[in-house]
Amino acid sequence: MTAKPLNDSGMDNASDSRIRQYLLMNSQQGSISIEAEKRCAEIFNVSLKDIRETVFNLGIMPMCYLRNMNTISVQEQHGLFKSSVAVIGCGGLGGYIVSHLARLGVGNIKIVDGDVFEEHNLNRQMFCGVDCIGKNKVDVIFNEVKNINPLTTIIPINERFNQSNCDEILKDVDVVADALDSIKTRLLLAKSCKRLGLPLVHGSIGGWYGQVSVQYPEDDNLISLFDGRDDKGIEQDLGNPSFTPALVSSIQVAEIIKILHGKRPTLRQKLLAIDLYDMRFNTLEF
After folding, report:
1. Which of 6, 89, 104, 232 would give a disulfide with 94, using CB separation of 3.0 to 4.6 Å?
2. Is the pLDDT of residue 108 over 50?
3. pLDDT for position 14
4. Nearest 5°: phi and psi at 87?
5. pLDDT for the residue numbered 34
C-alpha cells in the first residue's frame, strides 16, 4: 500500500491529532527515535517525511540529531530538513561534503559527477572502497547515504557540469558547493551561480594546501580568482592526501550551514588560505 502524504492542513483534524498524540507519547525528553517515526508512518499510512515534518512542528528533536543540540536548535534543524544543496563534484571534497550534509540533516542534496571510482581514489574519497571501483560515483553515494540518513533525498546526476546542463542542475537549490577539480568548470559554476542568484561555497585542495571562499550573487570574488587562469590545478603536481579534503570540506560545510540558517558566512568575499605543513591559516580580503 502506498503511503499517502499529509496535506497542508495535516490531513483531517482527527488523523492529524492522533498522529501528534502518538509522536508525543513515543518521545522521550524532547526527542524521538527513527524507529518510532517509522512505526507511526506505517500505522497511519503516511510518508516518513511527513511524519518527520510533524515531529519538527511539535518541537521534538529527532534522536539522530541530539548531538547537534545547543549548536543547532530544533527550529534550525527543521530549516535544514526543508533545504536543498547542490554538490558539484563527488571526489575528494564532494564525498565529505555530502556525508556531512546528510548527517547534519539537510533534506535534499543534488550530487553531480560523471565519473566512476578508480583505484587511486581510495586514499582520500569518502565513499570509495575496493568494491566500488568502476562504479558511478553518484550511484554509490546515493546508496550509501540511504543508510546514513533515510530522510535525506539524494538526487544523483551522472553528468559533468557544463554549459548545457548548468541551469537545470542548479534549479530549486538554496546553496551550491564547489567540489570541482577544473578551473574552467569552476569559472562556469561561479558565473552560473551569480546569474541565477545563488550563493556558492568554493573549496579547492592540493597536497598540504587548501582554500575556501564564499561568493554571493552580487559578488565577483570567485570569478576574479579564476578568470584567465590555466585549467591545471596544483593538485596535478602535489597530489591529495586524505587529511586535506577532510578539513577543507568541513570548513565549506560550516559556511553552507550558516547560509542555510540565514547568517552571514565568515568567508564571504574572503579567501581562507590553508597551509597544513606549517599550520598557517590566512584570511585574505578580495
Report:
1. 89
2. yes
3. 74
4. -110, 110
5. 97
As a whole-number percent, the residues of the chain with pLDDT over 90 amount to: 89
Q: What is the pLDDT of residue 235?
A: 67
pLDDT at 248 over 70: yes
Pairing of strands 209-215, 270-275: antiparallel
Read off the C-alpha cell for 123. 586514499
Using the predicted structure, report yes or no on whether residue 2 has a pLDDT greater than 70: no
Cell, residue 92:
575528494
Give the start-end residues of each E strand in the chain: 31-32, 61-62, 84-88, 108-112, 153-157, 175-178, 200-206, 209-215, 270-275, 280-285
Question: 171-223 pLDDT, tens per residue?
Answer: 999 999 999 999 999 999 999 999 999 999 999 999 999 999 999 999 999 99
> Reduced to 3 DSSP states, what percent helix, strand and coil does the chain have, rounded to the nearest 5?
45, 20, 35
Q: How far, in Å, CA of 267 to CA of 62, rounded? A: 31
All 3 cell numbers of residue 104? 547534519
Kindly tell me the burial class for residue 218, based on how many C-beta atoms sit within 10 Å of its own C-beta (0-12, 13-18, 19 or more). Answer: exposed
Comparing CA positions, the residue from 171, 200, 175 lying closest to residue 187 is 200
Instruction: Quote the cell numbers at residue 124.
Output: 582520500
DSSP state of 28: B
Domain boundaries, the chain: 13-66, 83-285
**Domain 83-285 class, CATH top level:** alpha beta
Contact 3, 46 (CB under 8 A): yes
* 3-state SS assignment for residue 159: coil
Determine the number of helices (DSSP H) and then strands (DSSP E) in the chain.
Answer: 11, 10
Q: How far is CA 107 from CA 91, 94, 134, 144, 214, in A?
A: 21, 17, 28, 15, 22
- Phi/psi zone of residue 96: left (φ > 0), alpha (ψ -120 to 50 degrees), beta? alpha
